[in-house]
TrEMBL record:
Gene3D superfamilies: 3.30.1360.180, Alkaline Phosphatase, subunit A. The keyword Transmembrane does not apply. This is glycerophosphocholine cholinephosphodiesterase. It comes from the Eukaryota. Keywords: Cell membrane, Disulfide bond, Glycoprotein, GPI-anchor, Hydrolase, Lipid degradation, Lipid metabolism, Lipoprotein, Membrane, Metal-binding, Phosphoprotein, Signal, Zinc. It catalyses: sphing-4-enine-phosphocholine + H2O = sphing-4-enine + phosphocholine + H(+); 1-(9Z-octadecenoyl)-sn-glycero-3-phosphocholine + H2O = 1-(9Z-octadecenoyl)-sn-glycerol + phosphocholine + H(+); 1-(9Z,12Z)-octadecadienoyl-sn-glycero-3-phosphocholine + H2O = 1-(9Z,12Z-octadecadienoyl)-sn-glycerol + phosphocholine + H(+); 1-tetradecanoyl-sn-glycero-3-phosphocholine + H2O = 1-tetradecanoyl-sn-glycerol + phosphocholine + H(+). It comes from Medioppia subpectinata.
């Protein structure tokens, strides 16, 4: 289960939760999980399910542009997110499992709708935009979690993915320090408590292993200073601008790279890299989808781009309404950290693991399923210590 935007310290600061403490006591948890760069959803979803950094797995951002084809990747449920070529640089876990005879179901996990070299997941319920109503969003997650138990009881699948978006949605709208986010945390906690209880009542607790992860954290934007980029950079020199908020990628027009780069270098609150100069520790620059200029935004600032159709993606209208929270900032900032919990017959009990990297999850899944992993960047010893044997 992937809980989008669930920050590493949400559980420890809430004293009335039942589900997370119960799982930690009867299973394992990690102190925290570091995201890969950038600390956004799609890069980290694919790190979770391939064990690779994005310069290898290819899902480098929530928004992408292919200079070779002119195609844009925009987050699901936009139809461009289903264009096959975005997903095929690395084989994801669900395809590896299917190839090795493990029937798999995926609920609301974007990418499950795409065939990989002609292979499809057994059952895919495609992602759709989360309901604005928390009770409805929680009800959907609760219903799917109970359906999954039905499927396991009927031996229909051995691997199931479930995506929950509400915590991220509320974090963006109101911020991670808001009363509203506390209600979202309590909502998913109750779902987990009921899931744990249902497993025992159905006598599946000795057969089913459950892993709960998040893709990144969230930081509060109340005091962040806006950077109005059109006041500092000539957008007539830009062919493609992707992003905003916590980062961006840019393709300048022919012959304008140095001019755009120099203008950006004078802007306070950001760091600017030509593609060849992107730091090695980002594990990023060697992918063909990385554009000529990368912009990262410092904590304390938020980037605003103008509305220019056919140049700026995504449309920036939403930035006129201030957001409460955001992610995508420095992966070493504590606010960007995520979570990992696991319980079931394969896991030790009441075990706290040392900090994990997002790429470590993949090897854990392969151990639990007994399948051969693809070559990956995860550290196998970190996940083995969480297992009974």
């Amino acid at each position: 289960m992937n809980m989008d935007g669930f920050r590493w310290d949400y559980v420890s600061r809430e004293k009335t939760l039942k589900g997370f403490p119960l799982i930690a006591q009867n299973g394992v948890s990690a102190k925290y999980v570091n995201p890969i760069f950038p600390a956004n959803s799609y890069p980290n979803w694919y790190a979770i399910t391939t064990g690779r950094y994005d310069e290898t797995h290819g899902m480098i951002q929530n928004y992408m542009y292919d200079n070779q084809t002119g195609d844009h990747f925009l987050m699901g449920p936009h139809p461009n997110a289903s264009h096959t070529h975005w997903w095929t640089q690395s084989e994801p876990l669900w395809i590896t499992a299917e190839k090795q005879g493990i029937k798999t179901a995926m609920y609301l996990w974007d990418g499950c709708q795409v065939a990989f070299n002609g292979i499809e997941v057994t059952n895919c319920v495609e992602y759709h935009t989360v309901s604005e109503d928390q009770s409805k969003a929680d009800e959907e997650t609760r219903n799917y979690s109970q359906k999954i138990l039905d499927d396991f009881a009927d031996d229909k699948y051995r691997l199931v993915f479930l995506y929950h978006e509400m915590v991220d949605h509320i974090g963006h709208a109101f911020g991670p320090n808001s009363p509203t986010i506390r209600e979202a945390i309590k909502g998913i906690d109750e779902i987990l408590y009921d899931l744990y209880d249902s497993l025992a009542k159905r006598k599946l607790d000795k057969e089913v292993n459950v892993v709960i992860v998040s893709d990144h954290g969230m930081t509060q934007l109340d005091d962040f200073k806006p950077i109005v980029l059109e006041d500092r950079v000539d957008f007539d020199n830009i062919e493609v601008f992707l992003g905003g908020g916590s980062g961006a990628q840019i393709t300048p027009k022919a012959g304008k790279l140095d001019e755009v780069y120099k203008q950006l270098r004078r802007v306070k609150g950001i760091k600017v890299y030509k593609r060849d100069d992107i730091p090695k520790q980002f594990h990023y620059k060697h992918n063909s989808l990385v554009l000529p200029i990368l912009v990262t935004v410092d904590i304390g600032y938020t980037l605003r781009a103008p509305i220019i159709e056919g140049v700026v993606y995504p449309a920036q209208q939403s930035q006129k309404k201030p957001r409460g929270g955001n992610h995508g900032y420095d992966i070493n900032d504590t606010d960007m950290r995520g979570i990992m919990y696991g319980f079931g017959p394969a896991f030790k009990k009441n075990f706290m693991a040392q900090p994990l990297e997002m790429v470590d999850h993949y090897n854990l899944f392969c151990h639990l399923l007994g399948i051969n992993p693809i070559p990956n960047n995860g550290t196998d010893s970190k996940v083995r210590e969480m297992l009974v044997s």
